[in-house]
């Protein structure tokens, strides 16, 4: 299989490590942000960050293995992320019309 | 490629149905809008009939996927329960709008109706589950899981006009997106460790790695992340906490949907992912077994203890749904052969019992509101005997009371666990079943034995009769199907045949 990107040499392990550290950092920042922030737009951005961290890892691994399927996967990830963004923004607008706030804490009717 | 397309014909049929239903939902004629659940059921029935034709012996023999046989059983079960779930949702969507239209208070506006979209999303989500079992690469599996989940977020939001439903939808969506990112990252690491996204190729690479020594640690971390992410779909610990809130917020018929459809998709994804690690002579790698073991114990314990503390019937059933995921994980740990057969069988069994219990809740109402507390059910037998008995039978079956269907499902799971040497796990599960008896027996006893309370006197039937028909059908199935349990189990065993051949380990029991 010829790679989609014209990479003649695979990524070196050191370069791969750089990509993976960046991607891992993005993922952790996203996760921590998701758990600590209460603004719904910011929470959604954090999940997007986690998605993009996975996408970055996919591309890096694809270049490391000289295999195009990682890049193909990323195209699908972007599509799904776009679908989720549409859904998230729709929900957020819908909620804002009801409550005039974007804080997740304003929504606490359901509990034990 | 063309052979692969054969296997998605049932999905294509349902997709056609989704398109037709979403267009017909815009019709200004009330008669047509009222037929949407029927049209949905017709397409599900066509897909049900098409599945065994598509999965003919010759075609399955030529198929190259990881689990070629799985589709026949899963797709037929999904269509069957899909029909019941569609019956449950009759009269739910746009109820007030349809009432206003009927009395002529408001003119028809196609932008305000959402019935068509609801049934389209309903079918799309079922397509997602079906696609899960045809998955042979990570992209397909990821897209199938997302296709299962994304429509359910919208279905929760549109199920009721109340604020609770919207809150439930927001919680469900945000946690779902986070869980999706977690298993996606797991998929990225799996790809990195193997250099392929194809599950079959991954399986052989893992086998070589394990023959040479240990599994690549990157792959191990990836698998664990993927399992944790998927545990959201099956409402297993540590991603179970959303279940009670979301199940309470959504309308009962959508809750029944949430209890079965994402759970089926998650279980199939787990089976596919774990099948790549081999499940061979060495069994699963120890860290994976430990993770699953802890998940199973935590899930069933937290689920059952949580259910004990509830007065709301829907929250109780939500926690019971968590606990049942824990029982199913026993089968996943037990591995191919008995274990996976028992999981597939239990999925069908649980889908039926769950639909029946929520069908009772969807078929009755109190001053236009859903039934909430246990007191509402008290003495139901005097005014609505059929619903009372349906609730009692489904709750008894969820408990695993012999000779009901749930007992047989649980028995096979426990046998599989014991045969796989997981005796402590089975003992914990048995203790949990005993704990669960307390609240299930309340669900049996309240409608049948208790005397009516002032609250339960005011309970009336919903205008649409179909949810009650579905509840009665499942109650009958719960009693009658144990007779055919062996045939169903043979179907499940056939579904995992490829897996057993590949790993060459346990022989499926049956015959």
Give a description of the structure.
The complex is a heterodimer of chains A (112) and B (511). The relative contact order of chain A is 0.15. In chain A, α1 (13-36) packs antiparallel against α2 (40-65) and α2 (40-65) packs antiparallel against α3. The longest helix of chain A is centred in the C-terminal third of the chain and has 31 residues, at 69-99. With 112 residues, chain A is an all-alpha fold. Chain A is 72% helix and 0% strand. With 511 residues, chain B is mostly helical. Chain B is globular. Residues 503-511 of chain B have low confidence and may be disordered. The A-B interface holds A 20, 23, 27, 30-31, 34, 40, 43-44, 47, 50-51, 53-55, 57-58, 60-62, 64-65, 67, 69-70, 72-73, 76-77, 80, 83-84, 87-88, 91, 94-95, 98, 104, 107-112 and B 137-139, 142-143, 146, 150, 153-154, 157, 163-164, 166-171, 173-174, 177-178, 180-182, 184-185, 187-189, 191-192, 195-197, 244-245, 248-249, 309.
Secondary structure layout:
The complex is a heterodimer of chains A (112) and B (511).
Chain A: H1 13-36, H2 40-65, H3 69-99
Helix pairs in contact in A: 1-2, 2-3
Chain B: H1 2-7, H2 9-24, H3 30-34, H4 36-54, H5 57-62, H6 70-88, H7 95-103, H8 115-134, H9 138-159, H10 163-194, H11 199-212, H12 217-233, H13 242-249, H14 252-276, H15 286-308, H16 313-334, H17 338-363, E1 364-366, H18 374-377, H19 380-383, H20 385-399, H21 405-419, H22 423-448, H23 454-457, E2 459-461, H24 466-480, H25 485-495, H26 497-503
Antiparallel strand pairs in B: 1-2
Helix pairs in contact in B: 2-4, 2-8, 4-6, 4-8, 6-8, 6-14, 6-17, 6-24, 6-25, 8-9, 8-14, 9-10, 9-14, 10-12, 10-13, 11-14, 12-14, 12-15, 13-16, 14-16, 14-17, 15-16, 15-22, 16-17, 16-21, 16-22, 17-20, 17-21, 17-24, 17-25, 20-22, 20-24, 21-22
């Amino acid at each position: 299989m010829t790679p989609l990107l014209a990479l003649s040499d695979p990524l070196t392990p050191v370069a791969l490590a750089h990509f993976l550290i960046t991607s891992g950092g993005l993922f952790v920042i996203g996760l921590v942000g998701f758990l600590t922030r209460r603004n719904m737009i910011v929470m959604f951005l954090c999940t997007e960050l986690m998605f993009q961290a996975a996408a970055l890892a996919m591309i890096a691994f694809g270049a490391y293995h000289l295999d195009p399927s990682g890049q193909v996967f990323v195209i699908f990830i972007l599509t799904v992320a776009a679908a989720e963004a549409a859904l998230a923004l729709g929900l957020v607008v819908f909620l804002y019309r009801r409550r005039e706030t974007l804080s997740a804490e304003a929504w606490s009717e359901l509990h034990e | 490629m063309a052979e692969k397309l054969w296997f998605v014909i049932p999905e294509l049929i349902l997709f056609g149905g989704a398109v037709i239903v979403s267009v017909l939902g815009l019709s200004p004629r009330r008669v047509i809008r009222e037929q949407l659940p029927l049209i949905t059921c017709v397409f599900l029935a066509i897909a049900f009939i098409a599945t065994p034709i598509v999965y003919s012996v010759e075609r399955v023999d030529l198929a190259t996927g990881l689990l070629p046989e799985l589709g026949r059983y899963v797709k037929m079960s999904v269509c069957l329960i899909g029909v019941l779930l569609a019956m449950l949702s009759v009269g739910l969507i746009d109820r007030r709008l349809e009432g206003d239209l009927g009395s002529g208070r408001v003119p028809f506006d196609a932008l305000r109706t959402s019935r068509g979209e609801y049934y389209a999303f309903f079918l799309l989500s079922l397509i997602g589950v079906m696609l899960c079992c045809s998955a042979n690469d990570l992209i397909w599996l990821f897209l199938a899981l997302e296709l299962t989940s994304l429509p359910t977020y919208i279905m929760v939001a549109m199920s009721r006009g109340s604020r609770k439903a919207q809150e439930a939808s927001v919680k469900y969506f945000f946690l779902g997106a986070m869980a999706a990112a977690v298993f996606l990252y797991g998929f990225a690491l799996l790809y990195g460790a193997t250099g392929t996204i194809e599950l079959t190729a991954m399986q052989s690479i893992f086998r070589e790695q394990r023959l040479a020594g240990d599994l690549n640690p990157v792959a191990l971390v990836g698998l664990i992340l993927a399992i944790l992410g998927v545990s959201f779909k099956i409402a297993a610990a540590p991603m179970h906490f959303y279940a009670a809130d979301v199940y309470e917020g959504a309308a009962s018929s959508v809750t029944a949907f949430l209890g079965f459809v994402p759970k089926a998709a998650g279980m199939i994804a787990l089976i596919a992912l774990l099948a790549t690690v081999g499940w061979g002579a060495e069994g699963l790698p120890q860290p994976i077994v430990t993770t699953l073991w802890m998940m199973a114990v935590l899930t069933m314990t937290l689920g059952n203890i949580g259910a004990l503390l509830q007065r709301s019937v829907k929250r109780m059933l939500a926690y019971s749904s968590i606990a049942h995921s824990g029982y199913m994980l026993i089968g996943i740990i037990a591995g191919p052969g008995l274990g996976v057969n028992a999981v597939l069988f239990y999925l069908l069994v649980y889908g039926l019992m769950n639909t029946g219990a929520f069908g009772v809740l969807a078929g009755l109402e109190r001053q236009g509101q859903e039934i909430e507390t246990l007191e509402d059910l008290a003495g139901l037998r005097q005014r609505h005997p059929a619903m009372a008995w349906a609730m009692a039978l489904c709750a008894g079956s969820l408990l695993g009371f012999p000779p009901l269907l749930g007992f047989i499902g649980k028995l096979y799971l426990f046998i599989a666990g014991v045969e796989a040497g997981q005796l402590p796990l089975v003992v914990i599960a048995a203790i949990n079943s005993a704990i669960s008896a307390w609240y299930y027996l309340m669900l049996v006893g309240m409608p049948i034995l208790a005397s009516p309370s002032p609250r339960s006197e005011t309970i009336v039937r919903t205008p649409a009769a179909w949810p009650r028909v579905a509840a009665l059908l499942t109650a009958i199935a719960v009693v009658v199907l144990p007779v055919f349990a062996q045939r169903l189990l043979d179907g499940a065993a056939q579904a995992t045949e490829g897996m057993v051949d590949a790993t060459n380990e346990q022989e499926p029991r049956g015959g």
